[in-house]
Amino acid sequence: MTDTVATPSLIKTLPGAAYTDPAYFTAEQAAIFETMWFCVVRSADIPDPGSYRTVQVGRESLIISRARDKSVKAFLNVCKHRGARLCTDEQGQVQRSFQCPYHAWTYGLDGKLIAAPNLTKMPDIDRVEFGLTSLPVREWLGYVWVCLADEPPSFEDSVQQDIVDRLGDLDSISHYDVADLALGKRIVYDVAANWKLIIENFMECYHCATIHPELTEVLPEFADGYAAQYFVGHGAEFGPDVKGFTVDGSEGLDKIPTVADDQDRRYYAITVRPQVFVNLVPDHVIIHRMFPLAADRTVVECDWLYLPSVVEAGKDVTASVELFHRVNSQDFDACERTQLGMSSRSYREGGVLVPSEHHIGAFHDWVTSMVGTPVRRRRPCRSPSVRRPRSTPSSWVPALPGPHSPTACRPTASARCWCSRPAGWTGPQTCSSTCRPRSPSRSAPGSTTGSTSRSPSRTWPAGGSTTPAARWSAGRRASTA
């Protein structure tokens, strides 16, 4: 949980290591990006059978393609023969199959193995079993969502619930008819910052008066520092002299006819975990999709969507695109500047959130419930005669046991040590009596001990005791009782 500090006005952020530690980022890939529904491409990006795009989700490269029956398929981009990567281009078109360039194993658009050198002499090969590894797929809002988990979470209780938590109901977003809009502009940003910094920035507007002069002219209430996401169902109202959501406040484009009267002249911002931003205004919709590639690198694809008639007629969308392009550039520049400070000793224990940012604390709580909390190593875990290798990654407390988390030291009978040992450790398997047991610096997920009261629009709990993180935490508490 997010720590409190001396004053009720301020609550602690995540420590700096959460934004810089490669080991922690790897844990995020395994525990978040590879377990949740992830928005990968716009459905219109793969219009025909055989068209495909490759994307990076967590530690995996995926092929998102359309089969002969026009259904969308998602596969791991790995040949089942010797593990070669099948497609290296970001997008492309194949006729009937995907062929490995190494040994020519060939797969149909449905993923089934259909050909290979001497395959007829190996009748015992199951062509489905040795086909491409397929993944669960959903199409919603005109986008393709995939999940790498063996047992995907409910799409309704995760992706769609984030929309409900923000807008109050699912009908509100249906008024924008997002799936039937057309792509008017796409800009790809390569941001030298951690993905969480980008989400935190999007969730608050404490910075808006400082770095967003154009946005605060269109949405005057943002100059007060409270973001629209702070309140359930609230949309920021356009200024009285503003005609449209454009860089100069001039008239916008054709209004989406199904937008409700109480949604007119308002801007709604929504965060869909773990990597999507939805921005709703009366005449267009802006969708951000983040692709975290490293602890300090995130690629963001931003789509501006309009009525098909607007795009087909070639109407000038420059003024509406320019407004949020400037906002994106200003935000990403701020995130990159912030990333530089995450490795400073000054930020080792983290920073603070002011009251208009307190709802970000719920996001931090959710991250730590999924992954764990990076902690500052206070004393090395070592035997009196054996030193730990200097290459050990920075210590952190895993929320989920598994191959992505450091191996925990085996405790002595009298003390439990939760320091981490590197993979391949050959030293003593029991901590010395002088090794300090770990005292959790944060409350357990779901605990309210020492917390500061908040009034965010959402709490983003870790979930019930059925979640892996909760089961592991419960087992740990029971074993130390």
TrEMBL record:
The keyword DNA repair does not apply. Signal peptide: none annotated. Pfam families: Rieske, Ring_hydroxyl_A. Its cofactor is Fe cation. Residues 376-405, 427-481 are annotated as: Disordered. PROSITE patterns: RIESKE. Residues 376-390 have a biased composition (Basic residues). Keywords: 2Fe-2S, Iron, Iron-sulfur, Metal-binding, Oxidoreductase. Residues 37-146 form the Rieske domain. Residues 430-462 have a biased composition (Low complexity). It comes from the Bacteria. The keyword Transcription does not apply. InterPro entries: Rieske_2Fe-2S, Rieske_2Fe-2S_sf, Ring_hydroxy_dOase_asu_C_dom, Rng_hydr_dOase-A. This is (2Fe-2S) ferredoxin. It comes from Arsenicicoccus piscis.
